[in-house]
Design a protein that fits this description.
Length: 236
């Protein structure tokens, strides 16, 4: 599996978000004594992009502005894989599972996850586009991923929709759109379904910080998709 070794919440501006994230991510690595040459995997996740486009991927832009893997290419050079993992607000969970799966194939000490959104156009009224979370992962640590699960509500296909003029237009609406408030108990944290993907992760990590034991983070996306990551937190 994989372990979270550092994370930070940052605020990004509306102009040149990739450059802003790269600058803040570079500072994040320095603050946590992580050499950028030890990063071999960079994944970006989120929901919204400019004009709702999915390509080109956002992660390679962050990689470029951070100067990751920009040394001269040779058979001996250290490669950096960067790509996006998109699955609504469940995307960060899929991204973390992807990091866990790929660590056995990528020869590096650390992987980095960035979760953020861009305001898609001037007509879009809803959403928090300023919050961003940066996470660093290693093979070993005190905050270790134990299990992951992904499912749809009542076995239905997830809803597909587009957003215009601040309204959501559904192509295959579910019987009941999900709108759940965040719920926490002793060992489980279910995120508010109306939060951005970044804020879902930020709220959980804030809640889990300082705890010890096994804890589950559940994401309920408004389109009916669900995901769960179970973490084991040991003493520092």
């Amino acid at each position: 599996m994989v372990s979270l070794v550092a994370w930070s919440k940052i605020s990004i501006g509306s102009r040149n978000p990739a450059k802003n994230i790269a600058k803040l991510a570079t500072a994040f690595l320095h603050e946590n004594s992580i050499n950028k040459s030890d990063i071999g995997l960079l994944i970006h996740s989120g929901v919204y992009r400019i004009n709702f486009r999915a390509e080109p991927a956002f992660a390679p832009n962050i990689q470029k502005y951070m100067g990751l893997g920009d040394n001269e290419i040779s058979p001996q050079s250290n490669h950096v894989f960067s790509f996006d993992v998109l699955d609504g607000t469940c995307g960060p969970h899929h991204a973390i599972q992807t990091i866990s799966d790929m660590f056995q194939y990528v020869n590096c000490k650390y992987a980095m996850l960035v979760v953020s959104d861009e305001k898609p156009n001037s007509l879009h009224k809803s959403g928090d586009f300023s919050s961003c979370i940066i996470c660093a992962f290693a093979r070993e640590g005190n905050f270790k991923l134990q299990e992951s699960k992904f499912w749809n509500i009542d076995g239905e296909l997830p809803a597909t929709y587009a957003s215009f003029n601040g309204k959501q237009h559904y192509l295959n609406p579910p019987n009941n759109l999900v709108s759940e408030q965040g719920v926490q108990d002793k060992n489980s944290f279910s995120s508010d379904s109306n939060l951005s993907s970044a804020n879902k992760m930020i709220d959980f990590f804030n809640w889990a910080t300082g705890k010890k034991g096994t804890f589950e983070h559940i994401i309920n996306d408004v389109n009916g998709k669900n995901s769960s990551l179970v973490w084991r937190i040991d003493d520092a």
